[in-house]
Design a protein that fits this description.
Layout: H1 26-48, E1 53-54, E2 57-58, H2 77-81, H3 83-90, H4 93-104, H5 133-153, E3 156-158, E4 164-166, H6 170-187, H7 190-197, H8 209-223, H9 226-249
Antiparallel strand pairs: 1-2, 3-4
Helix pairs in contact: 1-4, 3-5, 5-6, 6-9, 7-8
Length: 258
């Protein structure tokens, strides 16, 4: 007697319809909540336009500092700066999946019904700008240079006679952590991985092939944790700005080590 095979549908048609019994909605909900909170906070800080520097500390939202004429209303340095790093995150391969699922619900999760089944156009129409991610990488690297420069400046404190001397406060460690997290996120990027090892058919025959393979392997190891670095760096940049704001406003006293 021949065995019959019964094929069950993977998911039911319709938004949110699924045969899954796990909490598949928890991930998209958490993503929606965190990203929305970050957007609200960043927008508030961009319009607030004060308490962005405290001693040698400068908020990453205002770095590099670009003076804005007071005659231009509702414009702050942060508004000129934030589109740069924001463009890198917006076009990031990981973040695309994250906000497609949480904001557009297209699809909400694996094996879960979507809004417009089989109507996804990818990055061929409205989202064509996503292909600029490889160029946004260069912008992100440029901002990293400014942020690391800010960390170095945070180690220079004025003495009573006006000269500068080496010093460190808790804010310096906060800036260091932020630079580290952002560097890990940036250099674990898929575009950076391709830039390091892409376009090579054979490492053994390529110019500096052994060196490039070692670099590519290292970036590949970082790339495995790209999602983790994406979230840690997002929290890091917001908390760094918040710390600088608290110190600048006098709500928090910065601890000086030496």
């Amino acid at each position: 007697m021949a065995n019959s095979v019964v094929r069950l549908p993977i998911f039911e048609p319709g938004l949110g319809k699924t045969l899954r019994r796990d909490a598949w909605w928890a991930g998209p909900l958490a993503t929606f909540t965190v990203l929305s909170a970050f957007l609200v906070y960043a927008t508030f800080r961009a319009f607030e336009n004060k308490w962005f520097s405290a001693g040698p500390y400068l908020s990453p939202f205002y770095s590099p500092y670009i003076p804005v004429p007071a005659s231009i209303p509702l414009l702050s340095p942060a508004m000129l700066i934030l589109p740069g790093p924001a463009g890198f995150r917006l076009t990031c391969y990981y973040y695309r999946k994250a906000y497609y699922r949480s904001f557009a619900m297209d699809p909400p999760a694996c094996a879960v019904g979507e809004r417009n089944a089989h109507k996804y156009n990818g990055e061929t129409k409205l989202l064509l700008f996503q292909n600029l991610h490889r160029f946004a990488l260069y912008v992100a690297i440029a901002f990293l240079v400014f942020l690391w420069h800010d960390f170095i400046k945070s180690l220079c404190w004025p003495a009573a006679d006006g000269t500068m001397h080496f010093g460190m406060g808790a804010g310096s460690l906060v800036l260091l952590a932020n630079c580290t997290f952002l560097s890990l996120y940036t250099f674990s990027c898929h575009s950076w991985r391709h830039l390091v090892g892409g376009g090579v058919n054979s490492f053994s025959t390529a110019v500096l092939g052994k060196l490039r393979h070692s670099a590519w392997s290292g970036v590949s190891s970082l790339n495995k944790n790209h999602m983790l670095f994406a979230w840690v760096s997002l929290f890091g940049v917001a908390l760094t700005d918040f710390y600088v704001r608290m110190v600048a406003s006098g709500a928090l006293h910065d601890l000086r080590f030496f």
